[in-house]
Records
---
Amino acid sequence: MSDVAERVKKIVVEHLGVDEAKVTDDAKFIDDLGADSLDTVELVMAFEEEFGCEIPDDVAEKITTVKDAIDFIQDAS
Amino acid sequence: MRRVVVTGLGLVTPLATGVEQTWQRLLAGESGIRAIQNFDVSDLPSKIAGQPPQGETADGGFNANDWVSTKDQRKVDRFIVYGMAAAQQAIENAGWTPTDEESLDRTGVLMGSGIGGLETICEGAVTVHERGPRRLSPFFIPAALINLLSGQVSIKYGFRGPNHAVVTACSTGAHAIGDAARLIQWDDADVMVAGGAEAAVGRIGIAGFSASRALSTSYNDTPQKASRPWDRGRDGFVMGEGAGAVVLEEYEHARKRGATIYAEIVGYGLSGDAHHITAPPEDGNGGFRAMGAALKRAGLAPSDIDYINAHGTSTPVGDEIELSAVRRLFGDDVSGLAMSSTKSAIGHLLGAAGAVEAIFCTLAIRDSVVPPTLNLEDPCAGADGVDLVPHQAQQRSVRRALSNSFGFGGTNASLVLAAVE
């Protein structure tokens, strides 16, 4: 697992209070990990903070799975 | 009119988390006032407060993780955590966790706070100022809003009846209980979770009340001596935080399900001073009228009251004004009652105070004992002939108790609780 993937998953575990095993690449934040719309806003903020990048709102809306987040951050960095 | 009784109690106080732990320590004459350790007080004139001791719940300590999940703690201010802890205790104590639709629709929540998410707002302002608006949490607003305590409790338990909140400074807790009782009387609900919560002990809260010259500043080296209602050495109130919650229930509803009935809410009176933003009028007519209205609603005479839990904050002006209002209302009957200020032991819990003190009145009725006024060594003028319960709790029959709460803005509330025959 890449460094980015590891850090993304760690943030998801901490913010959503879910078991690490559930945070797979395909896991959907809302449908699979129990997040609500405000949780996803906070998650995106946490990614921005961790990776020092800016995720525009129109991109953030499309980040619905763990893999979406990893891919965006890897492309951006 | 439908009768309203108290069937559940919950407390988070500077003495303990838990009703029985708090009550035993209060009756033992313990104080919950300590030197503040968790933030810098070096430049603050008041360096002491009543804060719920951290620790294991089983030992009367406060452990936030036992009440709100760590994930959700980031989404709520500390006042909400305290309030949810008190509400959970009260609901479990009442044994009221229905699952049927009708019961959920007929159960409401009415809790309040004097200031609400003060620390959260303060931190949010710093974030926006230093790092820009994009760094502000999406939970900033719902974490800080006062009515979100009622909202969170309703969401957790599925209570879909009236959902309401009170914001009347230091009268909040009393108003919440009184208003919730009226919602039951008017048949808007059968059960209400009511109370108040506060978490304003932080740099900005202490600085704010210091700026308005309300706090004790002469006892920073002897914190447990600082809150001394009616004592000549008093010099201001001591900040406290925590929460109190009760389950109120329509009498027949409680009886039918075999609930433990602690007391009945028989009187509730409200008034405004229309005088000054922080000081009561010299003749105490606001408190006088609130007490009078509560007695009238209860259909009781002053001689029927056995115990008064006073507002008694330990401020130079307020204590004597309340005392003179009580003397005026009760006349010669003042010699037959006991009046104490439990703020001497826990400090002033602001929006939670009225709820916490109504619970103390309920327990005084249950156990036939009245809690003491600590540090009352040299009583002020006007104290002669009034039993202010100095230093030690007293065993005495309490059939009816009156609880006073007066808030900034000149907002007053009195509750009368009675034993259920």
Note: Chain B has 14 helices and 14 strands.
---
Amino acid sequence: MNIEGQVRIPSGCAIAAVISKEGKKMTGEKIIEAMKPMHDRSNGLGGGFTAYGIYPDYKDFYAFHMFFNDRSCRKNCEVFLKERFEIIKSEIIPTRKIPSITDEPIIWRYFVTPLRSMLASHQVDENEFVARTVMKINSEMPGCYVFSSGKNMGAFKAVGYPEDVGVFYRLEEYKGYCWTAHGRYPTNTPGWWGGAHPFTLLDYSIVHNGEISSYDANRRFIEMFGYKCTLQTDTEVITYIMDYLLRRQKLSLQDAANVIAAPFWSTIESIKDIEEKERLKFLRTVFSSLLITGPFSIVFGFNGGLMALNDRLKLRSMVVGEKDDKIFIASEESAIRVMEPNAENIYAPSGGEAVIVKVKDGAF
Amino acid sequence: MLINAENMDFKTLNQKIRECGHECHITGCCGQRFIGSGMMDKEITIDGIAGNALGAYLNGANITLNANAQDAVGDTMNEGTIIVHGSIGDAAGYAMRGGKIYIKGNAGYRAGIHMKEYKTKVPVMIIGGTAGSFLAEYQAGGIVIVLGINSNGRKIVGNFPCTGMHGGKIFLRGNTNDIVFPDNVCVKAAEESELKQIEPEITKFCSIFGYDLKEILNSPYTIITPDSKNPYKQMYVAN
């Protein structure tokens, strides 16, 4: 696999998501359809999906989705995994041979649980242990990439158009209460399997349309906390920022949104509610290095919900609609209409306005 | 002539529009881009969501859309009319240099960005509802009108309107006290003579969308023009 520095492809993106607030399961077919009217937003160099609630039989185990360059990479990695985890199940992720998807790596799936002895000796909780393991594999084991590591969820990504990637991974066979999707049009970095969206860590996933101007400032800050940016593209850092803010700093989703898409100082100054003003000032001051500048529209997925967010200048399009128990989000309204022709309350959130949707308690 | 656009790509769709006669009715539209781009002498009616850059470079054709539009409606249009019976996405009328856009609902961010005019070519965009932030950013000419119908107490224009504005006019209907304007523009109540200039446009807007003209006119209007004494003063260098 050639990575950034070895290839440059001079070349926007498409995102879409659907979630049932009742936790009702949907197959992947609808979200694949949604990507079709947005075909021209991608250029065939990356497509991917995240599905939540798809592994109910293994919901207590971390589901590692992995790419291996070859068989020896996989064998070495399995030895490493067995030192740290009990592997409950390991299997090839079923795919279809189709002409539009070629040069696939070895694509494998493991359901694992960390060995208690390892947790005790590292003195960390299991989420932290898993996150560290993912970082270690991605940065230290050439030819091995963990591209999904959450419980009862999974990412599926490839080089190709998203509608083909969905067919390739047989997503009609999975049932989830929440799906996110991405079609890639890489602007500065190569199209390779690891570089396709979503970018995930634990159950957190990001699909992103845009380009982060602040990438290196964000990367330098987040790497101080043990995160390693190894996937050669900007979006990865957003996933780690969200993990840092939510899991490690215990911020709320709203607060995290106000960190990465902080309002302008002039806008903060004009706010009359003193408490709100102080909250925004605090977040901008304490986490100034995590402000993400440049154009972005993102959908951030997690177990039990999602959040959609635009950069504060709103340099990318994003539309939200709803129908019954479902909320739809997409770069274009046409994608929402494909999923639900009668979608209601269509609106475009303002720059920096977080749209947070949660599945009702106990329904996922 | 009727064209069913279901599962048709934008290139084929535009080809069919070119091949059909003067009048053309598109059904089942769902996100096809560039519809009617560069066309003249056509009457195009569209059912369904029109894709990005609807009527880009339009050169005299009239387009009526019976739904919402996406981004960049009327990008660089030169002449003609675009009527949207819904809301539109971001950057509507981008660099528009002639013609008219009538929008029943709301406009997204950056409506009227870099509109321009030359002699008799004066583009006009009327937004029935509200407009997002950066309205008429870098406006160099033309007229943008925001009516704020059904704004339900919300600000009719978002943050940072008129940033870098150096030509043209903006008319805002109703209360503008909560809108913060930059230093490079003059903001004042519109006088009767100034309103007379846009009355034909508002009349047309009301007749298209079925509003009561008297009611729409019976409201204070604010006019915003660039402070043209020295529009670049202090913007980039101290001069």
Note: The first strand of chain A starts at residue 13 and ends at 20.
